[in-house]
Structure formats: structure tokens, C-alpha cells
Amino acid sequence: MSNTPRILVIDDEPDLLENCRMILMREGYDVRTMTNAEGLDTVLSEYDPDALITDLMIPQKDGMEVLREVKWSHSDLPVIMMTAYATIETAVEAMKNGATDYIVKPFAKDQFVHVVSRALKERKLVLENHKLKLELAQQKVKSSLVAVDPVMKELMDMAARVADTDASVFIQGESGTGKEVLARALHNASRRSGKQFLAVNCSALPANLIESELFGHEKGAFTGASTLRKGLLEEAQGGTFFFDEITEMDLSMQSKLLRVIQERTIRRVGGNRELPIDVRIVSATNRDPEEAVKSKLFREDLFFRVAVVTLHIPPLRKRPDDIPALSQHFLKEVCTIYGRQIDGFTPQVMERLQGYTWPGNVRELRNVIERAVSLATKSIIREEDLPTQLHKSTRRKVNIDSVDTYDNAKSKLLDQFQIEYFSQLMSEEDGNISRVAQRAGVDRKTVYRILNAVGLTKSED
Ligand SMILES: Nc1ncnc2c1ncn2[C@@H]1O[C@H](COP(=O)(O)OP(=O)(O)OP(=O)(O)O)[C@@H](O)[C@H]1O
Ligand SMILES: [Mg+2]
């Protein structure tokens, strides 16, 4: 709110409007008037008032309708209703629809001023409260994720802004980019943080188990169901539920989940009662969800439901500025765990770390640091503590170790070649395995096998 509060007044009587304007201006407010609600949307967004005063009876639209619409689009804007025919019913209805106050015409100047200033005070408190909440959420998100890169910072800001809403959040990003940390950060920054954060990996649960895992089952629902068991969604009541790799969920389960999200109720397997559930849904995938929808692996209607807000985490190679900060962060973390004292990295190491393509993203970086800490013999991480894939390619030459046989040396070189070949393709194709496979002229399984064998990524699970 700028220093001069802005007040918008709508009434079809020009005399009354003028009167209001004079009173409010004398109080030091900025005033704008309208004789009907035409173009109100535009005025609201351009003028951005701190309070709206509207007559209950205005041409074209009635004030109650205006109130409802304004509350939809600007829920924090205080609305004061003016009415010539004050009945308890209209007053009650106005307040029920979100009016801040109402005033009966004709009114005394002092009364009018009092009502307006009270609404503005309330508005100020609401805004301050929002600001504090947002700052708190930003701090919580910041404390869980390291980020220096401006795109990452903006992403975290957005996460903080949506944290305290119930909007379903869809997190997209390559493997190891930090989708799960972000999902947890969203939970911790929300008012649900006192309740559970439960995660399920949709690709790891077999289709026949997932329903009873998520929804629970009644006693005797199927062979082996000897007792009643609550499902995970029920356990997460009041908290956050994380559907990891949601695009991999079995299709029939997808339609059941869609129903749950629409109805906000679940039914245990073998049960006939609908149980209300209140969970915030966060989902993630390392696939392109639109492609998954196109290839009919992922239901489009479910996608829309779970992706009210989408947060796309860029791969690490697109944010090299994050690498020094993340490396320091992991160095500290790993040193604490290992009880070691290592001060930092040589400039050459930092150059290698920032120059590498990181197909396994932040997870791979953490692994590299962990490995380096355990290998380091000095109080600083040096190039020789880095794994081969990070050694500079120009330095690579056929190194004939005196004890190496021809086959051994060849296989080492082949490993190195594979690492570089696939790192480069993965980087150029943004980690999209299908396109990497296509360009390499091999099938996806082969790509996974090679990436896995040379330690470039986790296995296809
Ligand atoms: N911005 C970050 N700051 C600190 N740690 C991070 C950050 N991003 C990722 N990490 C760390 O990297 C590792 C991988 O993160 P996470 O498990 O969240 O990735 P993911 O995107 O869920 O991967 P996958 O797709 O393989 O499940 C974790 O150890 C996590 O703590
Ligand atoms: Mg994950």
C-alpha cells in the first residue's frame, strides 16, 4: 500500500459520489469514482484500490454481484456496501459474501469516515500478515535448498508464494535436480508442516498393490487382509502427499486418483464408506509430462488436476553458478558426517566442476564431493580426487600403465569414451533418454545400461 490510500467508490447518484469524494479527499485519501460497474476489472487492476465502497443498487449489475466477483478476483480488498434500505437480511447477506462492513444512507460524515478508516486498518494488518508469512515461507524454502542462479531463485520464490496455498504443485526436472527436496520444502513452508509429508514412488509400486497402499483396506477385503489397514493418503491427513514419478502410475490407478482429487474422499479397498481426506498434493516427474500425455501413458485430466502450479527445476548444467555454492554446501555436510576437516577446492577443481555437464545433476555432484572427501589426502580437494569423467578431455591420452594388459587398457579407454559420448548427448538432448537413444542409434535400454555402467545416472526403475 502506498502512503496515500486509494479508495474506489461506485454509486449511480452523482451528488452522493461527489459528497463521498469530498469527504474522503479531506481525509487525505486518493479517490476515484464510478457511476456503474462497467469496466470495473480494469479499474481494479490499474488503480489497485485499498478499499472499495459500492452501493447495493447500481445500474446493470447489483452491488451484491459486484461484491461476489470482487471477492473472487481480489479476496483481500475490503468492500464496504452502502444501502438505502438497510434490512438485517441484506446486511447479513453482504457480510456472508465477504463484505467488510456496510453503511446505511443517508450517513453522517463522521460515521462514513470511521467505517472507511477501520476497513483500511484491517487491510493494512492483512497485508502485513501476508508479507510476514511470505518472508517466513521464503526463509524456510531457502534453508532447504542452495541456490544462487537467478532462475533457481525465482523458482524458489514462486515455491514460497504457493507454499501456503492448497494448490496442487507439479515439479518437473531431470533426475537428481532436487524435486524431492523442493517438495519437502513446500511442505515445511506450509501450514501443514506440523502434519505428515508422505511420499510414494509411483513407478516402484506394482499396480495390484498401489490401490490398497494408497487407500487402505477393510478387514477381509482380500486374501491376506486379516486386519483393517489405513492407506497412506489417510495417514497423511492434514499433511502433504508426494506422488513421485506420477507419470509412471498405472493407468487404472490414475483414474481412481483423479476421482479422489475431484471428490476429496477415498474409499478403502473392500469398504463402502467414503472417507473425507484433506491432503495437499505435490507430484513430480523427470519425464516431459506433455509427451507422456500424448503417448497415452498419463491421463490429461489428471495432469491438469495435479499441475495447478508447475515448478520446473532446470538441470544443473544450465545453472553453473549454483555449482560453487552447492559444492561448498556438500563439502561441509559430508565433512561433518565423515568427521573430516577439508577447507575447500583448488581453482582447477572448481573449473572442472563448473565445466562438467552433470547428467546426474545435483545428486551426481553430491556423490562426486563425497567421493572426493573420502579420497582426499590433503586439506583441500585436488584434481586427482575427482572421478575420471571430470578429468579434462584434452588431458586424456592412452596411458599405458605398466601392469595393464591390452584388454584392460582398451576397456578403460572405452569406458572413458562412453562417458564422454553419452554425457555430451545427454547434455545436448536435455537428458531425454529417447532422443539420446535415437541419435546414438541404439535402444533406450542400451542407453540406460551404459549410463548405469559408467555411473552417469541411476538405473531405469
Ligand atoms: N538446491 C539444492 N540444494 C541442496 N541440495 C540439493 C539441491 N538440489 C538437490 N539437492 C540434493 O541432491 C540430491 C538429489 O535430490 P532429489 O532426491 O530431491 O532429486 P530428484 O529430482 O527427486 O531426483 P530423482 O528424479 O532421481 O528422484 C539430494 O541429496 C538432495 O538433497
Ligand atoms: Mg526424487
Top keywords for this entry?
binds magnesium ion; Rossmann fold; five-stranded parallel beta sheet; Helicase, Ruva Protein, domain 3; elongated; alpha/beta; 48% helix; binds adenosine-5'-triphosphate
Molecular structure report:
With 461 residues, this protein is an alpha/beta fold. It folds into 4 domains: 6-129, Response regulator (Rossmann fold), CATH 3.40.50; 149-314, P-loop containing nucleotide triphosphate hydrolases (Rossmann fold), CATH 3.40.50; 316-395, Helicase, Ruva Protein, domain 3, CATH 1.10.8.60; 396-461, Orthogonal Bundle (Arc Repressor Mutant, subunit A), CATH 1.10.10. It has helices spanning 14-26, 40-47, 63-73, 88-96, 109-144, 150-163, 179-188, 207-215, 232-235, 251-263, 289-294, 300-306, 322-338, 347-355, 361-375, 406-428, 433-440, 444-453, and strands at residues 6-10, 30-34, 51-55, 79-83, 101-104, 169-172, 197-201, 216-217, 229-230, 240-244, 265-266, 275-276, 280-285, 309-312, 344-345, 380-381. The strands form 5 sheets. It has a 5-stranded parallel beta sheet, sandwiched between helices. It has a 5-stranded parallel beta sheet with strand order 7-10-13-6-14. Strands 8-9 form a two-stranded antiparallel sheet. The longest helix is centred in the first third of the chain and has 36 residues, at 109-144. It is elongated, with a radius of gyration of 30 Å. The two termini are 51 Å apart.
